[in-house]
Amino acid sequence: MNVYIAGVATTPFGELWDVSPRSLANDVVNRAIRDAGIEKNNIEALFVGNMLSGMLGRQEHLGAFFSDSLGMHVPAFKVEGACASGGLAAHMAILSVLSGQYTTVCVLGVEKMTDHKPEDVSAALAGAGSDEERMSGATFPALYALLARVHMHRFGTTQEQLASVAVKNHFHASMNPNAQFKNLLTVEKVLQSSMVADPLHLLDCSPISDGASAVIITSKPSHPIHAIQVLASSVATDTLDIARRSSLDELRATRIAAKKAYTQAGILPKDIQVLEVHDCFTIAEILAMEDLGIYEKGKAAKAIEEGKTRLDGDFDRVVNSSGGLKGCGHPVGATGVKQLVEIVEQLRRSAGKRQVPNARYGLTHNVGGSGATAVVHILCTNRQ
Ligand code: COA
């Protein structure tokens, strides 16, 4: 059986103080349904990706909460896997259709973060780490700073190369009407921004964001040309605690999920023309490009710095055309779904100024915590 993404929608990401989670969800789900050319009563189940509604929003019954507010009253599930919640929800939705239980389901990724105090948000995000990491006060910027230090030590990666990831992703975000940051950066500006966790500056970090995205998954699309086929959906996990990993110059869960995904899709890393990867910090994009097998270990930072993944550069493939988490924003539970929205737009050739020419295969890569969960999807268009 083939499975497709038939409809997509996203809200702008950013500080959306005047909208509730309910209205964010209603907006994207209704638009995704229209985009798929179906009616609300065609949706047989709802999968919600969210991380923080319990800790920050005091709402712990999110499946029913949204199926009720959307007026659907279908089987509804909250799927949680830290910042990979959206990707995991899509994975579960795809499996539910592949199982034959449902024909058409909806995936909603949604998060409201900016209504809360920054220290409460940081503490809630730290819930994705191990008890030991939390007890030692290690927040996510600190954990990724450790990974960055290992990479710099082992492969000679420089702070300028880290900064070039942020510069590229803000450039792509400047062409995305839904992005949180549309301002262009320079390497100097990144290096002059305040230090958050050495060597990561403020402009090496993804921001705190609000936003929602939705996709419709189906085995029977009404508009086959408009629908984009899901060739692979895979998940892997690793130790929660980075101190227990055998190697800190890679995210092993990404490597495992990617290997399974390429096998499912029957393609190789070199076949992919457009990727949305999890750049929660600049080092994370460098690790992703190596662990996804796009570049050899130790080679991604130079390639990114040389413009090999940048839309206006001499690119081999384009990475994070949406602006990624860095430029587009990172409402954690929505991110994995927004990545799918961007790749679908790219493969439909409807990405406007961000369009990557002739893209046939696209990949999304969504990570939870410091790499304890990784989700990889590979999508394909049948257009020539
Ligand atoms: N990129 C670009 N600009 C940013 C930014 C970011 N990541 N974070 C904040 N800003 C901007 C704000 O818009 C603001 O600009 P303004 O003065 O023009 O309004 C300014 O920088 C200060 O913002 P503020 O909200 O005071 O920042 P902060 O110091 O409270 O938070 C971080 C900055 C980097 C600590 C915070 O964004 C953060 O914790 N990011 C990581 C989130 C995370 O861990 N996610 C999970 C990943 S696994």
Summary of the model, kept short:
This protein has 384 residues and is of the alpha/beta class.
Question: Would you kindly provide a written description of the structure presented here, covering whatever features stand out?
Answer:
The chain is α/β, with parallel strands linked by helices and 384 residues long. It has one domain (3-116, 207-380): Peroxisomal Thiolase, Chain A, domain 1, CATH 3.40.47.10. Helices cover 36% and strands 17% of the residues. It contains 13 helices and twelve strands. The chain has helices at 21-36, 62-69, 85-98, 118-125, 131-135, 140-155, 159-173, 187-192, 252-265, 282-291, 300-305, 324-328, 332-348, and strands at residues 4-10, 46-49, 76-79, 104-111, 195-197, 200-201, 211-218, 228-237, 274-276, 318-319, 361-368, 373-380. The strands form two sheets. The chain has a ten-stranded mixed β-sheet, with helices on both faces. Strand 2 (46-49), helix 2 (62-69) and strand 3 (76-79) form a beta-alpha-beta unit. Helix 3 crosses helix 13 and helix 7 (159-173) packs across helix 10. It is globular, with a radius of gyration of 19 Å. The protein starts with a strand and ends with a strand. 58% of the residues are buried. The model has no long low-confidence stretch (mean pLDDT 97). Coenzyme A binds at residues 83, 118, 122, 125, 140-141, 181, 196, 202-203, 205-208, 280, 330.
